[in-house]
Write a structure and sequence with these properties.
Length: 146
């Protein structure tokens, strides 16, 4: 694989990881199938998937000023699983992040007043932990089909 291919596959993993409908569940397997190694797939897709958490933690109020984003952020604050994060705190982030996604966790974490450092650390642990699991399962699936 040449440098241009690596950069394009890494950018694909990052972009897919960043957007809510793709996240790491599609970013890691698809870029691994396209030829990106598992470590790079987890790293770039995980970084892309993690980026919304600090973005929302630090710039929520600024993002809320935009009319289109404001309604979407308000709906995410009232997500049906937000009570889990309120009741169980930081440990619930590890379990909830893969189910709800990093965007929802970032908004709920801000809305319930969770400390930024706690939100960032537990989100990163969750995203990269599940990313490693997805990469391992993908590699086993690829090996099984060959």
């Amino acid at each position: 694989m040449n440098l241009f291919e690596y950069i394009s596959l890494s950018a694909t993993a990052w972009i897919m990881g960043f957007f809510p409908m793709f996240e790491i569940y599609l970013a890691i397997p698809s870029t691994m199938l396209l030829g990106l190694d598992s470590v790079s797939a987890v790293l770039w897709a995980g970084f892309g998937n993690f980026l919304p958490v600090p973005l929302l933690a630090y710039f929520y109020d600024w993002l809320h000023r935009f009319k289109r984003l404001s309604g979407w952020l308000d709906r995410l604050e009232k997500h049906r699983f937000s009570h889990l994060m309120r009741e169980h705190g930081s440990w619930s982030i590890i379990l909830v992040t893969p189910l709800l996604g990093s965007w929802v966790v970032g908004v709920i974490g801000h809305s319930i007043g969770m400390r930024r450092s706690t939100l960032l650390i537990y989100s990163a642990i969750s995203i990269f932990g599940y990313g490693v699991l997805i990469a391992w399962l993908t590699s086993k699936g690829i090996a099984f089909t060959i």
